Amino acid sequence: GESVGLHLPTLSVQEGDNSIINCAYSNSASDYFIWYKQESGKGPQFIIDIRSNMDKRQGQRVTVLLNKTVKHLSLQIAATQPGDSAVYFCAEKTGGNQFYFGTGTSLTVIP
Amino acid sequence: GAVVSQHPSWVICKSGTSVKIECRSLDFQATTMFWYRQFPKQSLMLMATSNEGSKATYEQGVEKDKFLINHASLTLSTLTVTSAHPEDSSFYICSARTSTGKFYGYTFGSGTRLTVV
């Protein structure tokens, strides 16, 4: 499989602050990336995706940034809420249909 | 739309028995489904890619004779853990490839927690 890693295994933020979760990937041929959120005992939930021909994509309260030069991906969550507490994974797809997941970052929002 | 249903959500079985997990796409046809395994506090590890009407493709290190995958229709893939042992206890998750309007992505089931005693 591919190697996708995260810089920080845990992250705590104050409610209302912005959160930034980072991800490093190793395969420069990866053409598509997805950020997932996983709550305890549940399957991953799609947050936002980005193709390799883009540098930035915005959703509702979330922004994904892609830096292909250093093979780095980040997820920014604006005005973090308690409901955002979960484990966040980045996943990369190469030429095939398989996705390979990173280690995961556990986000805790402090009320 | 794009719902993937997984059943059962939780199963306990005795060592040596077999367990079947179902993954269904409820409102779309999934020519490709993926099976992952996740141990506590770890990431999702891809086990195999299930293609409708053909043999599954297994990732390196995954025993195909132990984890039997059948994708007999465009809406159903099954994973059977044969002769289960306690080390097979894990969270098994399936996903299916979807293409819905502007969204192109992969939808995941809710997972099956397998405990082998």
Any overview of this molecule?
The complex is a heterodimer of chains A (111) and B (117). Chain A is 0% helix and 54% strand. Chain A has 111 residues and is an all-beta fold. In chain A, strands 2, 4, 5, 9, 10 and 11 form a six-stranded mixed beta sheet that branches. Chain A is globular. Chain B is mainly beta and 117 residues long. Helices cover 0% and strands 57% of the residues of chain B. The termini of chain B are far apart. In chain B, 36% of the residues are buried. The chains are: A mainly beta (111), B mainly beta (117).
Largest sheet of chain B: 7 strands, mixed
Quaternary structure type: heterodimer
Distance between the termini of chain B: 37 Å
Radius of gyration of chain B, CA atoms, in whole angstroms:
14 Å
The total beta strand count of chain A reads: 11
* Helix vs. strand class of chain B: mainly beta
Q: Helical proportion of chain B?
A: under 10%
Give the class of chain A from helix and strand content and strand pairing: mainly beta
Rg calc of chain A: 13 Å
Alpha carbon gap, first and last residue of chain A: 38 Å
As a percent range, the share of helical residues of chain A equals under 10%
Tally of alpha and pi helices of chain A:
0
**Gross morphology of chain B:** globular
What count of helical segments of chain B does DSSP give? 0
Mean pLDDT of chain B: 90
List keywords for this structure.
heterodimer; A: mainly beta; 6-stranded mixed beta sheet; 11 strands; B: 117 residues; 0% helix
